What does this fold into?
Amino acid sequence: MAALGWLLPRKRFATARSVLAGEAAAEAARKSSGALEQEDRFPVLGDTSAAAFFDLDNTVMQGAALFHFGRGLYKRKFFDTRELLRFAWQQAYFRLAGIEDPAHMQEASDAALSIVKGHRVEELEMIGDDIYDEYVAGRIWSGTRSLAQAHLDAGQKVWLVTAAPVEIAQTIARRLGLTGALGTVAESVDGVYTGRLVGEPLHGPAKAEAIRALAAAEGLDLTRCAAYSDSYNDIPMLSLVGHPYAVNPDPRLRKYAREREWRLRDYRTGRKAAMVGIPAAAGVGAVAGGTAAALALHRRRRLA
It folds into this structure.
């Protein structure tokens, strides 16, 4: 009988990879049966009353843009190793949690503001392209990039919408050939950063308000627009448009999107381990230190 054990039904729990495999198979089946014919006609060619809005971190690019730009600023001696460790810790925490936390986002914003305080705006704008080439270009999700290009090819405008500083967001948008970006605005006086924000970080409901204001200024019909994000925190933004997409979704957004039959796209094939705390290789020892600290905290919490 033991030799025939493989014929008997066994309990098996779905893993993250098996879920991805199942979704990929279902998608392929729908394509072959023509079930996606209607979806394939979106975006609609020439529909200029529509636009697309893309979250940045883990939607358009792997990881947090602010962290990678921070690495570039560290290389250019904008701040010391202690501050780099702080950035590394934030990145590791971001990966361990798998979701954005408002308090954590505020902490990251405060760290960035302290770094740029006293520097000229044009100084950051001048080095933005170099930092993009060094740390960001290789982290762009090609699948999400194709989604954005489909809107551009249809004659529609495409905007990044992110809690990252607007100067960073604008650089990435320009390099990707997008229309522009909505981002967190740091106060400057006479072209010099003061270390304060204008309002608050562009996060959660603030993103929806920014899109609503831009749509009014641009004469857009939000029911015809699309929005793309990985984060449960972006539900206000996704719910604002007629075509919401969950891209590389965190667990809560995946569940929420499925319940509402929103479209899902996942370009992380084989990379689910990253969601439980394996940050991308950073090439500096400080990142390894920050990751080790994050993993140690994770272990202590599990044992508590």
